[in-house]
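Quick one:
INPUT:
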């Protein structure tokens, strides 16, 4: 069967069919594959072929990217799903619950940043000492004034 005869209703898809169905460029699909988010195999002619489950995986990747989730985090999440079957609605619920928490934390940080920006409007000092946007977490504040040399064990030392 030639690749032209493989329909989307069939079990095997060409890279062009996946691109058309998902709206993701073939180059992006190859990139996802290089990062382990999706997988394919080669036919006798050396062309990529995908199983239908890839459509749902790509949908998940697109949605997660729209939420601002890093590709490496998406890959980690997808690695928890079986490769042999299409991700189910229950799989999606599990992933989306996890990503909702991630989004909540981001929103919290951005809200804080927005509130701190209020103090900077009309200021322009960009001072390392007083501007919250220049030194948002002020991680060295407890070590006293002046330059601080960070060691590789900084976090552990601070926790003691
Ligand atoms: S620019 Fe002055 S406090 Fe941020």
């Amino acid at each position: 069967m030639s690749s032209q005869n493989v329909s989307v209703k069939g079990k095997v898809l060409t890279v062009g069919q996946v691109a058309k169905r998902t709206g993701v460029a073939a180059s992006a699909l190859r990139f996802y594959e290089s990062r382990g988010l999706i997988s394919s195999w080669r036919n006798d002619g050396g062309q990529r072929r995908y199983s239908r489950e890839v459509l749902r995986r790509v949908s998940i990747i697109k949605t997660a990217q729209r939420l601002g989730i890093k590709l490496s985090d998406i890959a980690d999440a997808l690695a928890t799903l079986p490769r042999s079957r299409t991700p189910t609605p229950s799989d999606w619920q599990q992933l989306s619950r996890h990503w909702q928490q991630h989004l909540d934390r981001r929103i919290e940080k951005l809200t804080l940043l927005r509130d701190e920006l209020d103090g900077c409007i009309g200021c322009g000092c960009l001072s390392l000492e007083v501007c919250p946007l220049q030194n948002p977490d002020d991680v060295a504040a407890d070590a006293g004034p002046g330059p601080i040399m960070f060691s590789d064990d900084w976090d552990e030392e601070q926790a003691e």
